[in-house]
Amino acid sequence: MRTAIGTAAAALTIAAAIAGAQAPSVSGGDGSGRELFVAYCASCHGTSGRGDGPAADVFRTRPADLTKLAAKTNGIFAADTVSRVVAGRGNRAHGSVEMPVWGEVFKRMPGLDDSAVKARIDAIVQYLRSIQERSS
Ligand code: HEC
Q1: According to the model, what pLDDT value does residue 93 have?
Q2: What is the 99 CA–ligand 1 centroid distance (Å)?
Q3: CB 41 near ligand 1, within 6 Å
Q4: pLDDT at residue 12 in the model
Q5: Which of 2, 12, 122, 128 is most exposed, with the fewest beta carbons within 10 Å of its own?
């Protein structure tokens, strides 16, 4: 029951994120990482990236606190791994299906070729690097 509601809400959120892609502010394709983050990620992960976005409550697995990615990997921000997770789930053997597969979402947007999709993922990953909590 809760799962069905959560899934429907997630689908709506994703639809809203895709619709947002057509908004003038991000349709140029040269949006900064922060702009892309606010447009596509903040609804779940929060504007601060801490996993407290407005849609966060409907998930069984809470959206991750993205300011602690480096802390989880010995203080080193693993850009390649993060990039794979954002673009397409990486090589995880398990996990939820609640986090959108952004590589696919961006690929379906009109006017975004492979290099534009990669540029978006890269910009987002650079932004994530910039919001990592410093350990000590
Ligand atoms: C529809 C809600 C939703 C949106 C939008 C969303 N995420 Fe997530 N994300 C989740 C959930 C839920 C998890 C935790 C469960 C999982 O890993 O599948 C997660 C996990 C992650 C993780 C893994 C964190 C870890 O500790 O391994 C990363 C990285 C991430 N998201 C980045 C992003 C980025 C970047 C965007 C925007 C391009 C984004 N997310 C947009 C819901 C969302």
Answers
A1: 44
A2: 5
A3: yes
A4: 56
A5: 2
**How many CB atoms sit inside 10 A of residue 106's CB?**
23
Q: What separation in angstroms does the CA of 119 have from each of 13, 64, 135?
A: 23, 23, 28
Return the sign of the alpha-carbon dihedral for residues 6, 60, 49, 34.
negative
Tell me the average pLDDT of the chain. 80
**Is 10's C-beta closer than 6 angstroms to any atom of ligand 1?**
yes
Tokens of 61: 């697995």
Angle among Cα 112, 125, 33 to the nearest 5 degrees reads 65
The arithmetic mean of pLDDT across residues 80-108, rounded, is 78
Please count the other Cβ atoms lying within 10 Å of the Cβ belonging to residue 64: 16
Q: Is 34 exposed, middle or buried (0-12, 13-18, 19+ CB in 10 A)?
A: middle
Burial readout 8-26 (b: 16 or more C-beta within 10 A, e: otherwise): eebeebbeebeeebeeeeb
pLDDT at 50: 96
